[in-house]
Amino acid sequence: MYDAAFGLAATLYAVSGVMLLLQLARGPTIAVTRLGPWVLLAAAAVHLGLDVRYWLTPGGGPFAGIRPSLSTLALLGAGGYFALRQARPRFDVVGAFVAPLALFMLLASRHSNDTTAAPLGALTVLHVASVIIGTGAFTVAFAVALAYLLQERQVKQKRLRGLFQRLPPLDVLDEVGFRFVAVGLPVLTLGVVTGLMVIARTAARAASFETWQRTVGLAVWVLFAGVLGLRIVAGWRGRRPAIGTVLGYAGVIAVLVGYYLRGLHA
Amino acid sequence: MSAPFLVVGVNHRAAPIETRERLAVAPETLDAVVREVRALPSVDEAFVLATCNRVEVYVAAADQRAASASLRGWFGTRAPVDAILYEHHDGEAVRHAFRVCASLDSLVVGEPQILGQVKEAFHVARTAGGVGGFLSRLMGRAFHAAKRVRSETAIASGQVSVASVAVDLARGIFGELQGRRVLVLGAGKMALGAARSLARHGASLAIANRSYERAASLAKEHEASAHPLTDLAMLLQHSDVVVCSTAATRFVLTRDDVASAMKGRRGRSLFLIDITVPRNVDPRVGDLDNVYLYNVDDLEQIVVDGAQRREGATREAERLLEEELRAFEAEQRVVEGPGPTIAALRQKFHATAQGELERSFGHRLKHLGADDRKAVEAMLDATLSKLLHHPTVRLKQGSASHDGAVERAALQRLFELDLEPPSRPQEDDDD
Predict the structure, then answer these.
(1) What's the CATH superfamily of B5-157+310-333?
(2) How far is the C-alpha of A237 from the C-alpha of B309, rounded, in Å?
(3) Which is catalytic among the residues B3, B52, B121, B139?
(4) Are B175 and A155 a contacting pair at CB < 8 A?
(5) Residues B17-51: tens digit of each pLDDT
């Protein structure tokens, strides 16, 4: 039953990703691609069903380990996307970047209900939850930043057909990306602070393996703080913050991949 | 058709903006340029059309080969364009003139500005003495045809003008235009048209001009604020869209100007539309972050979309132009046939004789009685008829031949005959 539902969710994410990518690349010439957001919604619904079932098991929860957290992150990304497309027109195609990420995270969370890890302490759960929720906001910010960079290239290179018509206006993308970073950063900050507290408590057990992750994690925080701070202080807008967001998100994914791989080999 | 007509020129398709800049003709010098072209060897009539996208010379010339050489030489003195110059002769030249007026040859097919620009150029040429009977007939019919195309087809629907393109681009950058600020530099009609379209979507307007009085007058007309050009640095900081259309022959906005303004704008996007040739905005401005610069050539990208949508209307417009071309050819055949020349020749001779008779009857022959006067008149009429008999027969015999055309042209020039077509359409001045 789990395998079938998991397979269905993964298939729906993959199909929605293809549909949304086609819609982004070709426009509504293939009518069925307009269903992309709804297929993504169906994928998220099946996925949520799987996760809720797991959350209700003893020791389960949305942040009960790296793999359940990745699953939750996928749901947060999909949820953020839907909230965005409800609030703003022309944001459907941003799903073309969200769906593959959600699929990737779902696949990485495979068998998250098989975890045998010891229950996490409250502080650790708060740390993981903050990091994952912040990263959920950054997932949408990342998708929006990619859309911004594509649209900016279209306008700069005077390619006013196709993508230009399908992507949202530049200033709207810039503003929305900023808002998601502004939401994600304080939550991530809480995750960093709680993470430092967890490290302080378990310093003796900290492996050298984690050092680079902490370094990258802090670098990511500094990067996002820079994106946000420079905008507020110096009016940093447009291409450079978008690149900062993309790089920051790549750092977040690197850290998560590190934890994931450590979990596999623990 | 054997219209003695020739068009030589360059346009946006083959000539890059730098070349068109070198060929550009300032409005205040257009009459002098027309006189210069009219004075070239073998050029009988001429008018010059110089817009952002084309510089063309329309010439009536019996000896087209010689006229072509003259015009190529003239273009060559302004820029090395011999390789990209195009020529249209006779019927093809007439078709080209019709297509230009009807905006079928424009960068943005169906755009409304070109007809006004051609009319203005034609008016200048007429005032400067460059235009005679042929060009008057031709352009009258071309204006009439262009008006029919606009009113009877959907050629002007959708994105056909710089104005609508500007709105689309601005919305692609800013989203909603409510509350955005648009600055117009200069007083060009196209720029004001674009700015008005942006204002219709909620943007507010400011107009800056070298002459503050002119800016104030335009601002009153367009519900905008007026500024002298000395306010430019401040205006750049507060505007979202800048439409440049000054008559300046150098950059009005340099890279440093805009880079400096962007610091004060705290990174807010700036959309610059430079619709002038020579350009008003340093092209390197487009390299700056959050600055989006479009010049007239850049609009070509948008033409493709609009042209596809209007493909059906374009076909209908071409069909309508063919109708008008046939009407012009028929009209031209009448004018080029022997009838109008013979009638004009006889009318000229008789009018001259009648004038002389009346003068003589009032002075040296005033002693003549009524019968004698009638006898003198009859004798003069008979003399004129005999004198004109041979030329009339000759003209009728040669009506369809090349020699006949040459003879008609010679007579028309020698006796300064003014040939009117049977029903020449009036030039439309209501666009």
Answers:
(1) Glutamyl-tRNA reductase, N-terminal domain (3.30.460.30)
(2) 36
(3) B52
(4) no
(5) 888 888 999 888 999 999 999 999 989 899 999 99
